[in-house]
Amino acid sequence: MRDVAAPELIRNLTTPDRADGSAGLGAGGVASPYRARSAPAPELEPVLFRFAWAGRTSTYDQQDPTLSLPRQLRSCGQVLPEDAVVVAHFYDVESGRKDLDTRGRSTAHEMFSIPIARDGGIHDLLAEAERPDRRFDYVICESIERIARRTYIGTDIENRLERAGVRLLAADEPFNLAPTGGRKAKVATQLLTRRVKQGIAEFYVIEMLEKSWDGFAVHTEQGFNIGKPCYGHRARQVAHPVPAKRAKGQKKTFLEPDPAQAPVVRRIFAWRLGERAGYQVIADRLNDDLAANPPPTPVDPERAVGRWTASNVRDVLTNPKHTGHMVWNRHARKSGSNRANPVSEWIWSPQPVHEALVDLESFIAAQEISGHRFGSRSSAGPNTAHPDTKRSYLLRTYLFCELCGRRMFGKTRRSHAYYVCAPRKDYTPDGHPTGGAFFVREDQLVDGLNDFLSQHVFGAYRRALLDTTAAAMDADARRDHEERVAALRRAIGDTDQRIKRTIRSLELVDDPDPDLLRDINERRAELRAHRQDLETQLDAAEARIHAAPNPDLIDALPVTRVEVDQLPEHLARDLFEALRLEIHYNKLANQARCRITLSGTTVAAARKAADRTVSATHPAPADPDPPGEPDNADSVPILVVPPAGFEPATPALGERCSIP
């Protein structure tokens, strides 16, 4: 291979004269008539083969581009003929498994002093190859996997170069640049070699990724943490189980509660579950006292903002490690640009492996609140994020369309507030009215809501208004559930005794044979599997008892008349959140159904919000300790006040909404 600066032409393909001076003579020195009639062959100018070099290293932390890239260039130069010159150098420091449209965007090469002038990356190479004034006619790489680790991407790049008239070569493949006399060059062996190497390269990468993935899964199941400890926990280091790594000082880590951060996590979940507070509302409360609520520090400390943000709160509430389980693979960090993976793809440790900051049931309940609040802010007042906003809507977040399930949004027409459901055309269910005909006035909904709260929730006869199936719990069904739980507990205890007797039977034999040992081990495994099944059934039975309706919860609320439109908006929204209010409006029936839900974890917040409501509307203070309040709120099951329907006034609810 010649240097790029060599000016001379280095190939002469003219036919030399014979040594006896009889050039062009036939046999016996007689001039051939054919040669005589043929025109003398023109002298061909020497040919110079112009090459572009393509290189790549996968990572900047596991490889050294300052060594790998020069080595690749030297390997290519060693197989090029003398009449070849490399005129351009294209290389990247990135994974070869990326899609082609995401390739060439890495700036990792700027972190190193690579002794090769860079003309661009893979996209720059393809762009120049398709230009008529390109500097090269061939592209060479050390091996085909340097172009791409995925066969599809590699062949796509190869085809694009071929369509542009540029031939892709690899230093470890056979190739021939000599003229073929007008015949098509033979590339079958080269193509076979290339496709075999591409298949092996892709197989190797996928196999290594699968084994690595399985290793991370086992690592997680054993309770070891991966990455930076989540907020609320700190790392508890243990010696590495591999002696060679242990000798180098490497360690593995478990998680343990952080004394300063763990109370903050519990506080965040309490606000979310008790008040259904939004991310930003919680962040604002935490920022009021940063000494008691230290903000999280990102992996790169220079990016720390020194305060809580809504995304920080979301990260805390959505991290399942707070339940005591170790969890991995929540995000596709390498293959999916950090997108969230489905919960079904998460890897959980079978049992809790570190101290839990919240129980699993509370964590799941917090995720359900996220689904309810999605797309709706929790703060009162107009939306300051939109400068054109002139008013707020009292029932936003809580009003849903019964026909399609979507949350309805507010609009103002001639100084009156309305709620509208106008899904996109492609997402509109059959029979759903169009947006122009789907209006309901806020004051009509508020009148019906006031009656519902004053009679069914805070009224003196609210117990009598409860549905009979919710007002009186079925004693026979509850007794059956309790008997089922007791029977399962007895069966678990009996199984434990049988496991112990199986072990003792081995102690009675002085010299057990292999068959006996195998039978005992199989029996013990069967008993353990049976015990696990019984525990699963017990958990389900206890959950059914815990979820049984308890009408007594409603007695914890005061008796009063409620006019939500007379309350400050923030107090009204606090009351709605505490009661878990939902309003479902059916346009076709012109009926709105109101529903509230009380539970042992929310009844205290509901009572507190109700007391503030009473204080705001009546001068007399509310009774701080009503006789009907349960003693142990944490163990009280859930009460759902059955939906009560009402029909808003109809003058403005015709086929076309007419505003009076």
Automatic annotation (TrEMBL):
Coiled-coil stretches: 517-544
Keyword Coiled coil annotated: yes
PROSITE patterns: RECOMBINASE_DNA_BIND (PS51737)
Name of one Pfam family that matches: Resolvase
Residues annotated as domain Recombinase: 247-376
SMART domains assigned to the protein according to its UniProt record, in alphabetical order: Resolvase
Disordered: annotated segments: 609-660
Keyword Coiled coil: yes
Keywords (A to Z) from UniProt: Coiled coil
InterPro entries recorded: DNA_bind_recomb_sf (IPR038109), DNA_bind_recombinase_dom (IPR011109), Resolv_N (IPR006119), Resolvase-like_N_sf (IPR036162), SSR_resolvase (IPR050639)
A single GO molecular function term of this UniProt record: DNA strand exchange activity
Protein name from the UniProt record: DNA invertase Pin-like site-specific DNA recombinase
Organism from which the protein derives: Pseudonocardia kunmingensis
